[in-house]
Amino acid sequence: MNATLESRELNATDRCDACGAQAYVRVILESTGGELLFCAHHARKNEEKLRPLAATWQDETERIGS
Known about the structure:
alpha+beta; 2 helices; disordered N terminus
């Protein structure tokens, strides 16, 4: 898996796959290495289902409002 992809800070061009808002969470799937991006709301909504499938859960929600 590409370590650069995993460690890159999310920015304003990264958009939630569910609603198009700014993404603050990146999920890298264990099985495929595929990437999912979520706003804080959709990350919380899907976390219980996705955590067991995630190789990486990059959470930058602490940046909201800063």
